[in-house]
Amino acid sequence: MAYRLSLRKKQLLVSIHVFSVVAWFGGAMCMLLLGLYMKHADNGEQLYYTLTNMHLIDITLIRYPAIMVFVTGIMLSIWTQWGLIKHCSPS
Q: Which spans are transmembrane here (predicted)?
């Protein structure tokens, strides 16, 4: 029999998963807003600082939360009743 999470561990893992999704979505919205702001930049200095901020957001709010979403999603699918590929098979 496969390892199953206790209710408390599952709730913790789901909380981490949801928090990571929210951070990832927030980072995507920030990137969108900065991209729209970049359209109206007047000089190269504004472009430089906007792109620097976009790079920082990409590293902190896009890359790592996306990795956490992936890892916690795999862990939840393996350690709960859903299974990793259980519901993907054709009927």
A: 12-38, 61-85
Rounded Cα distance between 21 and 27, Å, is 10
Helices (H), the chain: 7-39, 44-57, 64-79
Least-confidence region, from 8-22, 26-40, 74-88: 74-88
Report the mean per-residue pLDDT for the chain.
89
pTM above 0.90, yes or no: no
Q: Where do the domains of the chain lie?
A: 17-79
CA distance 25 to 31: 10
Distance CA 69, CA 54 (A): 21
